[in-house]
From TrEMBL:
The keyword DNA repair does not apply. One of its GO terms (biological process) is fructose 6-phosphate metabolic process. Catalyzes the phosphorylation of D-fructose 6-phosphate to fructose 1,6-bisphosphate by ATP, the first committing step of glycolysis. ATP binds at G11, R72, Y73, G102, D103, G104, S105. This is ATP-dependent 6-phosphofructokinase. Its EC number is 2.7.1.11.
Length: 320
């Protein structure tokens, strides 16, 4: 291939810019022309496409978000929308596409694959809920952002002998809660993937107080319920001076960590290598610390992301 394009879709994630940069720089290194598509699949259908030079990605590796922007575009789920997108790609003479995003973005890439258009998908979401990879672009930065907040909240929780419920993002996945719960020394982690008993949580908090513990930190994944609902349910078992902190979209922003920058760069370069030899219909990931690529349709149909529930058990053993 001599002309490829890259787009970002869905929620932004720190490291997306680093991945775009890698696609552009690696593409130019291989003698390709690289085009950027603004606003994801919406921009693809609208033909909002521009040629990218090495200079366009200068100083982008340290920036969070995505300079190609992103947008929701449910119309791309229809065949009509998909064919309009392919029409624009052909209009610009683009022979292959790199898509960076979450599960919705992957579904769009899989749809293009079914139409015979060479597409490579890279996992970009702080939720870390994409099948076929252990880690996604943006996850490491997000959990470090959350961890910084948890450390600060513990200071005030101890000062006032209170229970703090910290609601974190992740949609229906518990990865952010699991990793920050263990790293932040939380007394409780509540995730959608594992059933919980509110009375048992209350009893654990009470036993800690009886031992002289000055605070309790509960990390709550948003896919379970919101923080205020959780606090209300907890209050039925006693007054634990519960306070709720919803971290929200701060988790998506910020300069990517070194790990996210490296992972994004490796993913982006691998995507170009694949398209260079005409290979599409693939998704790139990292499994057991090795970069892998798998058939995107098979991955979406047969694999499901599962959080490392051993971390949940570990936290129960060491947070008591």
């Amino acid at each position: 291939m001599k002309r490829i394009a890259v787009l970002t879709s869905g929620g932004d994630a720190p490291g997306m810019n680093a991945a775009i940069r890698a696609v552009v720089r690696k593409g130019h290194y291989e003698g390709m022309e690289v085009y950027g598509i603004n606003y994801g699949y919406a921009g693809l259908v609208a033909g909002d496409i521009r040629k990218l030079t090495r200079r366009d990605v200068g100083d982008k590796i340290s920036r969070g978000g995505t300079f190609l922007y992103s947008a929701r575009y449910p119309e791309f789920a229809t065949e009509e929308g998909q064919l309009k997108g392919i029409e624009q790609l052909k209009k610009f003479g683009i022979e292959g596409l790199v898509v960076i995003g979450g599960d919705g973005s992957y579904m769009g890439a899989a749809a293009l694959t079914r139409h015979g258009y060479p597409t490579v998908a890279l996992p970009g979401t702080i939720d870390n809920d994409i099948p076929g990879t252990d880690f996604c672009i943006g996850f490491d930065t997000a959990i470090n952002t959350v961890l910084d907040s948890v450390d600060k909240i513990r200071d005030t929780a101890t000062s006032h002998v209170r229970t703090f419920i910290i609601e974190v993002m992740g949609r229906n996945a518990g990865d952010i809660a699991l990793w920050t719960g263990v790293a932040g020394g939380a007394e409780q982690i509540v995730i959608p993937d594992i059933d919980f008993n509110m009375e048992e949580i209350a009893n654990t908090i009470q036993k800690g107080r009886e031992r002289g513990k000055k605070h309790s930190i509960i990390i709550l994944a948003e896919g379970v319920m919101n923080g205020n609902e959780f606090a209300e349910e907890l209050s039925k078992f006693g007054d634990y001076q519960a306070r709720v902190t919803v971290l929200g979209h701060v988790q998506r922003g910020g300069s990517p960590t070194a790990r996210d920058r490296v992972l994004s760069s490796v993913f982006g370069a691998r995507a170009v290598d694949l398209l260079k030899v005409g290979r599409g219909g693939l998704c790139v990931g990292i499994v057991d610390n090795k970069i892998v690529e798998n058939d995107i349709i098979e991955t979406l149909n047969t694999k499901k992301h599962m959080p490392d529930v051993s971390l949940y058990k570990l936290n129960q053993e060491i947070s008591y």
